[in-house]
Design goal:
With 176 residues, the protein is of the alpha+beta class. The chain folds into two domains: 76 residues, Ubiquitin-like (UB roll) (Roll); 81 residues, DNA polymerase, domain 1. It is 34% helix and 14% strand. The protein has six helices and five strands, in the order E-E-H-E-E-E-H-H-H-H-H. A five-stranded mixed β-sheet has the order 2-1-5-3-4, with helices on both faces. Helix 2 packs across helix 5. The radius of gyration is 18 Å and the shape is globular.
Length: 176
């Protein structure tokens, strides 16, 4: 490499169901490529040590911590970020239920929770509360206390199964 010239990696992959090509410094993590080079800021910087889950994305349908994955590692693969969860202009049922139940308080950790929950519900459309807790255990939240998050995943699962499900507060308090 010549002094003063930066080497760039060029890769192609599918991002949120669209083919993309991007050039970036080869030492960058997937988190940095998504935020800095592709301007997708839904994926958040957290601990950058793989301990908080804030930077979770799906790679080939599996939840990964984007702070621990080199951008180079997604060449030819499918990456889904929170921006790619909505379909045909409509929020994903998980996004709806997180909003309906107030499961997203400050919202910083929410994208990671949503993507882990998406992976869970695609593999197991009717998870128990314990299975939800186990799946989400790698994601940390400092605001909610987790109960509303678990309830939002349960409600989304029911709606995705085609059940007429309403939030418990609507049933208890008679909201319409």
């Amino acid at each position: 490499m010549t002094e003063g010239i930066r080497q760039k990696a060029h890769i192609e992959f599918r991002l949120n169901d669209e083919a993309v090509e991007v050039a970036f410094a080869p030492h960058k993590t997937l988190l940095e490529v998504l935020r800095e080079d592709l301007n997708l800021t839904g994926t958040k910087h957290g601990c950058e040590l793989g301990e908080c889950g804030t930077c979770t994305v799906l790679v080939d349908g599996r939840a990964v911590l984007s702070c621990l994955v080199l951008g180079l590692d997604v060449e030819g693969r499918e990456v889904t970020t929170v921006e790619g969860m909505a379909e045909e202009g409509r929020l994903h049922p998980l996004q709806d239920t997180f909003a309906d139940l107030g499961a997203a308080q400050c919202g910083y950790c929410t994208p990671g929770f949503l993507l882990v929950a998406k992976e869970l519900l695609e593999a197991n459309p009717q998870p128990s509360r314990e299975e939800i807790k186990e799946a989400l255990a790698g994601n940390l939240c400092r605001c909610t206390g987790y109960i509303k998050i678990y309830e939002a995943v349960e409600l989304a699962a029911a709606r995705m199964r085609g059940e007429e499900a309403r939030p418990a507060k609507e049933i208890i308090y008679g909201y319409e």
